[in-house]
Structures are given as structure tokens and as C-alpha cells.
Amino acid sequence: YVEYLGEDEGTNVIVLYIEGLKDGTRFLKMAREVIRKKPIIVFKAGRTRHGSRATMSHTASIAGSDQVFEAICRQTGIIRTYDVSHAFDLAEALSKQPLPKGNRVAVISAGGGHCVVTTDACGALGLEVPELDKETVQTLEKYLLPHAPPPTNPIDLAADPRPMTVANIVELLAQNPRINAIITMAPVSIRSTNPAYIREVLTAAEILSEIPRKYGKPLIATAMRGNMNGIAFELMKERGIPFYEFPEEASRAMYGLYRYSQLH
């Protein structure tokens, strides 16, 4: 499968569910070749003693040492996940976004708690959320509401309801050479029938959607599940912006991009 999918032009990312390897040497050789062209993400079952026994009864596959498999992943550049859903979080980002040129991430959200949790999640995965320089902070402050805290990164929008606030801040950060990637809330919910407001939401969505192509930096969007619908959301999805509900999911997706970028 790996050999075939590695050559398949319609496949951008390979996601594998593995219980055991019957020919570890061949798998290792093939994975090394394929990873030069496209990422491989693996979820391996049978990590525990009881799980290993279950794989034997299920497919007669010997799960083998989990430590050995972990070493194989590190040697080859395989991205390993420990939750099935995490594999697909990473795959969506890797199939749609450019690779970052470093691990420095800008975080933008409507509330302080979300900012802190995202920053913690990034840090736990080896991603840096660097403090912005004084000049950048002063420029960003011009876009924020008076009661918003200093935008040193992460940037707390303090529940700013204006869609273009996000778009303007993200574009400014995308131009900053010290920022390699962006995780931002996306103002996709249309809460008014006012034509001017609807136009602003769509304009903001278009600006955000163009960031990866325009600046060559990945953009990961977050939104509440109930807001992941409507014309602005669909516009961004169609243009390749991946959406996640929780800070940990968004951070994990960005980590996948950074991890694979280290092989290039």
C-alpha cells in the first residue's frame, strides 16, 4: 500500500492504521523513499500488552515492541499519532497548507482563555509562540478595541465583533519575518442580515483564505462547531483552510506541518 500510494498522484498524504509489521525492513526502506515526496501518518494499535494480544487474535499479526516502532518512526520521519482522530487532524492540514519555515507561531483568538490554552498546547509540542517586538505591538494596537490587552502574542481580541479586525491583524502578522505560521479564530458566523456586515464577513474570509498563497505561511483556523457552516465558512474551506474546534487540535495540526517541514 505504501509503495502504491507513494506513486499515486491523487494522494497527497498517507494515513496508516497498523497493528504489526511482517516485514519491518521492507517497510522501513519504502517509508524512507515515500516520505521524501509526501508525509506518512501512522496510528499503531497493540501498544500495550493486552492490546498486543488482541492484535494476535484479530489478524494473527505480531505487534512487536512499541519502543522499536517508535524508533522506526523517528528514523524515517513518520508522524505517529496516539489517537485515531488525531491522524486525520494532521492529514487535513498537511494536504492543504504550505510547510512553515520554522516553529514560531502567532496565535489570535477572541478570548484570553483560548489564547492561553492554544499557547500551552503549542509549547507542549515544541512550537514557539514568540513575544512580538514593540513596533509590531504598537501597530497591532491600532486595530484593537481600547479594552483589549497588549497584543504581544498570543493576541486576545477581547471579543471584538468586527470581522476585519482578525483579517487585518493576521495579514500584518503574515508579513512579519519572525512569524512562520498562524493559528487564528475565523469570523465566519454571520450574526446580522445587514448587507454591509455580511460583505465585511466575506471580505475577511477572503483575506484570510489568501494568506497561505500570498505569504507562503500556513494558516490554521478555529471556530466553534456550531459556527462551522454558512457561506463564509464554506468559502474558506473551499480555498484550503482547515478548521478545528479545540486549541489542542489546531496546535497538533500545526505541529504536523512543522514536523514534516524538518525533513525538507
Automatic annotation (TrEMBL):
Ligase-CoA domain residues are: 105-257
Q: What is this protein called?
A: Succinyl-CoA synthetase-like flavodoxin domain-containing protein
PANTHER family per the UniProt record, alphabetical:
ACETATE--COA LIGASE [ADP-FORMING]
Domain Succinyl-CoA synthetase-like flavodoxin residue range list = 1-94
Supply the alphabetized keyword list.
ATP-binding, Ligase, Nucleotide-binding
Q: Which SUPFAM superfamilies would you find in this protein's record?
A: Succinyl-CoA synthetase domains
Q: Which InterPro entries match?
A: Acyl-CoA_Synth/Transferase (IPR051538), Ligase_CoA_dom (IPR043938), Succ_CoA_lig_flav_dom (IPR032875), Succinyl-CoA_synth-like (IPR016102)
- Molecular function via GO: acetate-CoA ligase (ADP-forming) activity; ATP binding
